[in-house]
Every structure is written in C-alpha cells, then in structure tokens.
Amino acid sequence: MGQVWHQNAVIYQVDPGRFFDTNADGSGDLRGVVQKLDYIASLGATTLWLNPFYVSPGRDNGYDVVDHLAVDPRSGTEDDIRWLLEETRKRGMRVIVELVAQHTSDQAYWFQEARKSPQSPFRDFYIWSDKPEPNEPAPMFPTVEPSIWRWDEEAGQYYRHLFYHHEPDLNLSNPLVVAEVDRILLHWANMGVAGFRVDAASHMVEQAGAGQKETGYALFDRFHDLLMPDNPDTILLGEVDVSVEEMKHYFDEGQRLTTLLNFWINKNIFLAMAREDSTPLCKALEELPVPPERCGYCFWLRNHDELDMEDLDQHDYDFVMDKYAPTEEMRIYGRGIRRRLAPMLDGDERHLAMAHALLFSLPGTPVIRYGDEIGMGDDLNQPERESVRTPMQWDDSPGAGFSAADAARFISPIIATGPYNYHKINVAEQLAREGSLLQRIRTIVHVWRELPEVHYHCFTHVTLSQKCVYAVRYEDENAATLMFINLAAAPVEIDCEEAAGLAGAQEVLADDTYDAPTQTLRLNGYGYRWLRLM
C-alpha cells in the first residue's frame, strides 16, 4: 500500500508569537518562523503546524479570531505568510494552519453586527436564547466560566459560548455561516497551505447538526468535497476528543476528516508511563477503529492546551494526577495538567528521550511542540494554559535569543529562574553538547523518517512477560521493524524468542551502545532499541 504524505510526516507545532521576534516588539512573528526554518528542518520536521496568526485581541492565544482572512499586524503581513509558504516548499516542507470556526471573538464584525438588531443579517450567525436551556453542556472551562450562556445587553438576549464568554459560538447550521467558512478554507488552500488543523471539530459537528451529530458530520463531507478537486493532498486534521466508538464517524469512508488528533491515546501514554506498564497503551491502541487507507491518527506528548486526563477510570486518573501534577497549581479545569513535559519527568533527559522514542513508536503521525525537543519548562505563575506558552529559548543571551526588546514588552515572560531557565535550557547549549536531548530527538526523528512501514495499517503489538516494555512490530512487503521501549527506570532483559525472533536484525536506533541481541535483548532504564529486518 502506498503512503500519502501525512502518514510519514513529522509535525512541528509552532506558536508564531512565541518563537522568534525579528522586529524587537516583544512578540514573535512569521518572519521569525522563516528565519528558523533551517533549524526546524534540521530536527527532521517535515510539516509546520502554525498556531493562529489571524487578527485577534489575543485573549485566547489567537483562538479568539476577529478576521480569519487577515494576518494580525503583530505576526506580520500576508506577504510574510506567502514568503513562509515559499520557503517551506524550497525545503520540501509543508504548512498546516488553524481553522477556528466553532466560534469567533466577540470583537468580530459578524458579532458586533449581530448584537445590533434581531433583524440584522448576522443575527443568525450566532446562537441566541431568551432563556438559557437547562440541559445545555457544561462549559469547557468550568472553573472560569459558570455557564455557556452570557447576557448581552445590546442584543437583549443570551448568546451561547462553549468556551470563553468573549468567544461566541457560531451557528454552523446556518448555510450562510458555512459559506463563510468555505471562503476561509479556499482562501488559505489556494494560497498553498497543506491542510487545516480543525479546532474544536467535535463541537462543530454538534453545532452544525443543531444537536444532532448524525446531521452535523455532513459539515466535514462538505469541506472535503470543497477542497479535494483543486487541492487533493490537503488534509483536515481534526481536534476530536470523543469516545473510541465515535471516531469512525469522523473518517466515514475517508471522505471527511483525514487525520484525528487522538486524545484517548494521549491519556494512555501518560497512564502507561506513570505506571511503568505498557498494557493500557497497547489496549487503547488496539481498541481504535482502523482508519481508511488514506487516513490516520496523530499523536503527541504535549500541546498548547492542558493535558486532559478526563475519561480515565477514577483510580487511573488519580494515579496519573498524583504522579505528574501533585499540587493544585499544576492542575486545571478539574480535569487536566498545565505543565510542560520536562518538569513532569523531572528534567531527566534519558526519560524525556524515551518518551519521544515511545511517541515515534506509535502507529501514526507524530507532533512535537516547539521547545519540547530541548526540555523547556513551564511558568505556573501564568494564568491557566499560559503556563505552557512561554517564549522559545534559543540561547543564554538576554531575552533567550527570542527577542531584542525589553523583557517587560515580551508577549509572555521568558523563563529566567529555576531549573528550566534559559541560561541552562536552550538550543545553543544542546547543539554543542553531544548526547543532549536535542541531539537524541533529532536522531529518533531522522531514523523514523527512513522507516516507511511505520504507520497504522502495518502494526502488531508484541506480547512480552515484561509489561514495562512497549514492544511493536511494523511490517510491509519490503521490511519489518521491531521497536522496544522500556517505560521503567530499572534495566530489563527480554528473551529474544519471546520478542518474535531477532535473528539477522540490524539495530537502527538505540539509547546506548548495546551488545547484539543473541539470546536476550537488554534495555537500560528508560532505554529504547529499534531493530530492522529486511
């Protein structure tokens, strides 16, 4: 079976405002992303996922969009995004941008017009009520917003907002709204983006179907049919935090979303690491619906939001939270963790490298959040999810090489104190240090890219007596790769016969120098080994 490009992609998630500032205004910009493309390419990334750069008040990291068709002046200009697209093409890379169409900012023209009169042509762009419905869903941020309804004095009605009150929900059952979303998609697709990360995709389905999911799924049929004639390689990467049973509806027969960001696996990655037991991760992966041939899943360790551990069994939930977020300040929204990966794993570079080897051993498209490749920390003094949205730490010069502006003007405070401060944790230091986390992750990425058999349709778990080892076999008509990841701090030895036979296997990746496997395969604590049979 031939692959489509996203099945062998490595996605690097960039927040343009926090990556690199070229004009010394304290905020990163698109030109800064261009200047750092060679660094991103050297990591082995093939695709950029850009967090929002659209016109926005910036009250929700740019997800409160005022104008979906215009670049925020703080990020640059439309010429800058065109330049970025051109420069990524030169390097054989692609760009995914955000489709934020579940809501807008309350400063958006549509909402400002909608408020003015019930007869406004924009009134039905949003969801209004004279009296809030008693059985509506709980707010997405329950510790911040008491309800999903907000009274608007000018409109004389309540408007619905599943997220923040300054982000009113769009009425996606209104054909005029959907036509505007079509226009947004075509604008960016025709400019040359490779796809869209569809924000809040499962909530869009509910709104498009006016509460009836079966009707709402047709929204993604429409987007697929809109994009594919002129842009057949475009992907729709859906933020879909739903039950395993529901996932298949987002693929349908491959005519809806292309790839699903898989939250269920994300939760079970951390459960497996916390318990030093691969069983829950293997079980979760085997429960997933097999995606259509041209579709797949997307996996990550950390993103720009909270780590949502909701839906785990209560005992497992408590175990993970006590392990990785033992104090209340590390927790958020009554369901998740607001820490970066490195502090969760105590800054142990061996442990962090193992976590990335595990990520790249999973049957799907891996995502690396900017800064995770060097083990950046978090700032728990910042509100809510802002704790994991600090500026990139490039070197130990003032401003961490992020910006030449006065630090007081930075979009977010740089991490300047504590064990994850930029003097200690930065790209320059790790580029110069052999065996650093950055060097290890680069090696993992580059080896993975040479293994085309590694994707969902080719994987089989290998059952071992040592449950602390995640073991998987990928095989196509040309080659087989076996991957062994030790989730435990203690070393382990695996019987080679139990490991499905390793005779003649060539080691292509390892955390250390090991003897060739004969009767046993040895793994260090937090060790990993990938072996290939041709």
TrEMBL record:
Stretches assigned to the Glycosyl hydrolase family 13 catalytic domain: 13-409
Gene3D superfamilies noted in UniProt: Glycosidases, Oligo-1,6-glucosidase, Domain 2
InterPro entries tied to this protein: GH (IPR017853), GH13_cat_dom (IPR006047), O16G_dom_2 (IPR045857)
Pfam (any one): Alpha-amylase
Organism whose genome encodes this protein: Siccibacter colletis
CDD domains: AmyAc_TreS
SMART domains with a match to the protein in the record: Aamy (SM00642)
Listed name of the protein: Alpha-amylase family protein
